[in-house]
Amino acid sequence: MILDGGLSNALEERGHDLSSDLWTAALLAAAPEEIAAVHRAYFLAGAQVATTASYQASVPGLVRAGLEKVQAERLVRRSVEVAREVRDELSGDGVTRLVAASVGPYGAVLADGSEYRGRYGLAPAALRDFHLPRLELLATAGPDLFAVETIPDADEAAVLVPLLDEVGLPYWLSYSTDGLRTRAGQPLEDAYAVVADSPHAVATGVNCCAPEEVGAALEVAARVTGRPGVAYPNSGEGWDSGTHTWSGHTSYDVSLAPAWVAAGASYVGGCCRVGPRDIAALAATLAG
């Protein structure tokens, strides 16, 4: 299936400032129609999966931003509802489209760059107490599956996987990687072993990594888990979490995608700095 691309870059291209700690989730209250417009653009470009604006959304984070708990819970659910409404609006054309509720790592909520490092210094029980209520809340909004994405640390995945099986929705889990290691430094063989026996994992792979790292990671994921792969790298540009700026040039090349499919990927798309035009090119390449 063709996944969408980056939500943040598409919203920024529409003129939105996403510099707050809430990132794309800030628009769930301020301008949900803009999030809907981006989901629509990706679907019309050929994406078959919309990934919701919940990556950095959590009740604790929204409460810290000044919302009441009930309002915060409503916005987390709203992230799924917005994507479902756009999916249903386009349903008459016979194309199967899915809504994946984005589940980012704990570090994403901190908004301090630790999502790219892992090793938060939290006990597993504290991570469980953070993740389980969010998973349960997202599930009540009726997504088709979870996109558990940009996970930097196999230790966090080891907490998440039993919770995901407890909630019971299908999910994919994708690590952010540095070569053949997680961002926290664990070998990918060990990281993917965490997911291997999960009955609800429909795919494992990588996202928000450099495009040239995808193929080798997918081969490890397929060997260890025996599951279909998921691959949605970023543009290949460098991200400075301190200044919140990108540098360098894009290396996202849709001509690489057939090799990703050959390595086992059943879900292919893009992450940060990959936009609707890129997804349209990807869809055309894989259709050809």
From TrEMBL:
Residue intervals of the Hcy-binding domain: 1-286
Enzyme class per UniProt: transferase
Keywords from the UniProt entry: Metal-binding, Methyltransferase, Transferase, Zinc
SUPFAM superfamilies: Homocysteine S-methyltransferase
Coiled-coil region list: none
Pfam families: S-methyl_trans
Residues noted as binding Zn(2+) in the record, renumbered to the chain: C208, C271, C272
Molecular function as annotated in GO: methyltransferase activity
Record keyword Isomerase present: no
UniProt protein name: Homocysteine S-methyltransferase
Species this chain originates from: Nocardioides jiangsuensis
Gene that produces this protein: mmuM
